[in-house]
Design brief:
heterodimer, A: ABC transporter involved in vitamin B12 uptake, BtuC, B: 6-stranded mixed sheet, binds adenosine-5'-triphosphate, binds magnesium ion
Chain lengths: ~325, ~250
Amino acid sequence: MTRAPGIAAAGLGLLALAAASLLTGVIALGPGTWDGPEALAVLAVSRIPRTLAALLTGASMAVAGLIMQMLARNRFIEPATAGTGQSAALGILGVTLLWPAAPIWAQMGTASLAAILGSLGFLLMIRRLPPTQPLLVPLVGLIYGGLLGAAVGAIGYQLDLLQYVEVWMNGEFSGVLRGRYELLWASGALTLLAYAFADRFTIAGLGREASVSLGLNYARVVAVGLLIVSVTTALTVVTVGMIPFVGLVVPNIVSRLAGDNLRATLPGVAALGAGLVLACDLLGRIVRAPYEIPVGTLLGVLGALLFLWLLNARPRHAR
Amino acid sequence: MIEIRQVSHRIGGTPILSDIDVTIPKGGITALIGPNGAGKSTLLGLVARLERLQAGRIAVDGLDVARTPTDRLARTLAILRQDGTVAARLTVRDLVGFGRYPHHKGWPGPADRDAVEEALEAFDLAPLGTRFVDTLSGGQRQRAMVAMTYAQGTDYILLDEPLNNLDLAHARALMQRLRGMADRHGRTIVVVLHEVNYAAHYADRIIGLRDGRIAAQGPAPEVLTEPTLSSLFGSPVRLGRVGEHTVVLHHA
Ligand SMILES: Nc1ncnc2c1ncn2[C@@H]1O[C@H](COP(=O)(O)OP(=O)(O)OP(=O)(O)O)[C@@H](O)[C@H]1O
Ligand SMILES: [Mg+2]
């Protein structure tokens, strides 16, 4: 196989992006201002955490989207639009209400639990849809996610918590500092767990019957997938806020080019997701410096463009 | 041996199968025939534990399908579903490779790779190995699905209308291969066939299903008679002979 050059290129690209991200921001870092203790402090407290947060979020949300698509057997959904992210926000809202001084792990636990329930509700709902109408699935997802999102908004408005809601629903990385993003490493760990389950998710993507025929405990594989998707999303919502589109666009691009065998494609999905989110975050810092454009806005534009290109690009014929 | 004891099945209150009691001995080809909606696919689905057993008992090679762990059964029994074509974007080689999953659980060895290559050869798929399944023609896709089932390498193989979409050369090649697997490797094959002539030529035994009940069963020559076939399908069927072959004239 000739995959080594691809892996090398992806690695170099990510490294270049990360280096650029470390050097880009309101406080100029570069030759000359490079080595003072202040520069090191900026790097350690802000730039490195921000860069890592973007990479971890991008990789884990892209993989979460991929898994959700395999479980639902539908390419047009992602946790950020189909109710998982909104449920997580609802969970944090609930815990903020009932236990304002809740420590981070309690917020995290509640958000995860709510996200699991929300995603489970979605999966159960789409099970009843006719398989001949694949576009009903994202439609139901949008309505479901929209309703949950509206509930979050309404409750937030009633209780004067809208500014928090804003933070959870529109993710961005400008607030990321050392000590505030480390939960995202758990997302990274879940992404590794997803890789261990890659074959099982691929088989689950063939459907329940094919899974059972091949000896898979289908319910357990779905449960593990649901857990990975939900907890990853909840972690993202709690730490940086919901990041849309990565989970939709990246798996679709990779599937188009390389297919759905997750053992082979999952690393590429993670790398592309990490690169895309970091690139958008970087772009957001550069375009209107010293102001920032939220990463979600840029992802929306870039994601939409990529998606249109994807719909129009002719599928590659292998022979 | 596949033992089916007092199996009944309902869907939403409607009886689909009633008191099915039949034993399929080890080795050889058993053809399952009968009109549309008779319950053939439902019965195969129950044997392959894809549907939950509501009443009765089924054992494959002594393994109770309701109680044996599913991954254990996957090494004894493989099934090709009637409408099981996959939508996922996998290459033909990867798809067939997943047939080996019950054996390697994600860590394929040389034996698994050999089995995949052999399955690709067997079904004339070697030139299509790198193609995505969703770019294949209907018959090519059907062959890929059959090859996946074949690669699973189980002693018991259930095939629900495997000849769907196959041209006459590939249909014959598939039936000959099944025959070879039964004769040389002692495999037990149950195959749903609509073209009774294939059953006449290749099957050792025939089970006729009608309205969820067993209407006829026995060695092929005993079941393939004009009155039995005519009443099974509710349509007049005549038998003729070409050389030493019995042919079923059902088309005119
Ligand atoms: N999910 C379902 N809901 C309602 N009825 C069903 C369902 N699945 C099967 N049936 C009914 O059960 C009966 C048996 O179906 P089955 O698919 O087993 O028939 P079959 O013998 O395989 O037919 P064919 O030759 O057309 O494949 C049919 O009348 C069918 O309409
Ligand atoms: Mg059928």
